[in-house]
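During the no-cost extension, the postdoctoral fellow (Dr. R.K.) reprocessed legacy sequence entries with the updated structure-token encoder. One reprocessed record is reproduced below for audit purposes.
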Amino acid sequence: MMISTLRDYIKEQGSTTMSELNVKFNLTSDELEGPINILISKNLIKPELPTPVESTSKCSGCPMGCSSKEQENCSPAPIFTIYKWIA
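Re-encoded structure tokens follow.
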């Protein structure tokens, strides 16, 4: 994958998730990790985890399909990381 293609896509979108990148580029999260880390190191994008719905650490309506019991210790999966253009 060309880093410039990924860079241009994130810049155009303003922000995107790993899940969206997986679909757009037909690549796994592992395959995208290297190019994304390069963009992060160049201070072009910034990763952010989704904000919990409630003020506690529990999730609400977990997109991972976790049961209520599993949601008590839930932390967002890497595919839900949001990458924001900052340059």
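The longest helix spans residues 29-41. The beta strands are 15-17, 45-48, 82-85. The remaining legacy entries will be reprocessed before the final report is submitted.
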